[in-house]
Amino acid sequence: MSGFLKSLSEEKKWTGPAAGVLGFLEGSFVVFPMEPLFIPMMAARHARAWIIALWLLFGNVMGAVLMYAVGAFLLEPVAEPLFQFLGVEQEYQKASSDLEENAFTSLFLVGVTPFPFQVGTAAAGAIGVALPVFLAAVSLSRGIRYMALAGLVMVIGARARGFLEDHERAIFIAGLVLFVLLAAVAILGNA
């Protein structure tokens, strides 16, 4: 293994915090899938995939709390213009009405489906979903997501370990390129 991913995977003290930062970004500002970054990180440190998943979960929940606060306190000046820029106003309206009907189930589904997570968490803050309900639903749904990724990496990674080690740099670069392409499509598609 080599390069940036190697340094993250070999330096135990940085692997977790780096995963936490990625989780935070996904939970707060990044509105497109970040699995192309998560999976290589987990695969590079195969034995620590579960720990990386927990760090991703922690960071993601912290990002969700930030978006909850934005929805609760900065809806008009920050969240609404952002939703307009991203073209997700209808998703926000749907999330708000769904949350009013059943907050826990709606938030749980936002956490495990392709629905924009940040929109759902900001809507939860805007309508005043109780913080314990919010934290439980978000933690459970995102925990399932990250633990499933870790499990997938553990099962597939054990069989593909040699390939992953031989091609780690190419896999990381491909993941990064895929992430950038998904970001560009998301941004240009809503412009």
Overview of the structural elements:
The chain is mainly α. It has one domain. Helices cover 86% and strands 0% of the residues. It contains ten helices and no strands. It has helices at residues 3-10, 12-28, 35-44, 49-73, 75-86, 89-101, 103-112, 117-127, 131-166, 168-189. Helix 2 (12-28) runs parallel beside helix 4 (49-73) and helix 4 packs antiparallel against helix 9 (131-166). It is globular. It starts with a helix and ends with a helix. The model has no long low-confidence stretch (mean pLDDT 84).
Short structural description:
By secondary structure, the chain is an all-alpha fold. The chain contains ten helices and no strands. The chain has helices spanning 3-10, 12-28, 35-44, 49-73, 75-86, 89-101, 103-112, 117-127, 131-166, 168-189.
Average of per-residue pLDDT values: 84
Q: What is the count of structural domains?
A: 1
Structural class: mainly alpha
Order of helices and strands: HHHHHHHHHH
Q: Say how many strands there are.
A: 0
Percent helix, as a range, is over 70%
Please state roughly what percent of the residues sit in beta strands, choosing from under 5%, 5-15%, 15-25%, 25-35%, 35-45% or over 45%.
under 5%
Over all CA atoms, what is the radius of gyration?
17 Å
Which terms would index this structure?
mainly alpha, 0% strand
Topology of this structure?
Layout: H1 3-10, H2 12-28, H3 35-44, H4 49-73, H5 75-86, H6 89-101, H7 103-112, H8 117-127, H9 131-166, H10 168-189
Helix pairs in contact: 1-2, 1-3, 2-4, 3-4, 3-9, 3-10, 4-8, 4-9, 6-7, 6-8, 7-8, 7-9
